[in-house]
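W.,

You were right to be curious about this one. When I first looked at the sequence I had no strong expectations either way, so I just let the prediction run and decided to look at it fresh. Below is the sequence, 141 residues in total, followed by the output.
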Amino acid sequence: MTNTTLWLIAGAALIALELFTTTFYLLAIAAGFLAAAAASALSFSSATQLLIASVVSLLASYAIKQWKKNRTSTEIMPSDDIGKVVQIEAWLDERHARIHYRGSHWDAVLAPDCKASDTETWYISASHGTQFEISNTPPQI
């Protein structure tokens, strides 16, 4: 097996593994391996292939890190769920409930100014990851 084939197999394996991690860093390393495969096909030495793989992987990893840093600090994701009506399925304790919303079951916590009651109508007042904050008064949007 040639060096080119080995680099291509390693790059393809990393791309396949990336499908399970979804971090993009394995793609950065795979890009380095694919660049090394190109260098191998052009008959560069093994040391040069390793250097190319390392440099391309590091540069791609740095670019991903910067992209993620800029994306998370500048994007504010507004929630379309705020103000929507939900149904309480069960109270877990005096502050936590299981709700039915959008055809699925979700964890919810009461808003700080709210108390558990037999009220039929509950509104989403905030979203914290996969947990909703609910209130018995509609939020001011």
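Here's what jumped out at me. The chain has a mean pLDDT of 88. And, maybe more interesting for your project: DSSP finds three helices and five strands in the chain.

Coffee later to discuss?

I.
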